[in-house]
Here is the input.
Amino acid sequence: MSLEECIPQDHLLRKIASVIDFSFIYDYVRPYYSHTGAPSVDPVVIFKMALLGYLYGETCERKLAEECRLNLASMWFLGYDLDEMPPDHSILSKLRARFGALNSVCRDERAARMRPCNSPGYA
Here is the structure.
């Protein structure tokens, strides 16, 4: 039995996989990955896990990681087979910590750039 056979052709995740080329993620995250050290989890897998959480409204990393292990469509979407384990919740927690901090830096930078627009007489 293969996961490919288990997932209906009209499943939402099949539709997403057929229209989105997730390889753009590699260029986006390249500055954050080291070329040395232990091999890392594929960044596309991490992004897809976060996308699954968004699509299905799961905000708890532990529950999302468990759902990814239990749901055949999620396993297929992530590119794993039945005898493989997708990443655990700690990968998602690290992602939130790393990119959450980056988001706050960007938000602060945007606020600093907008400050002059709030000055009296600025049209």
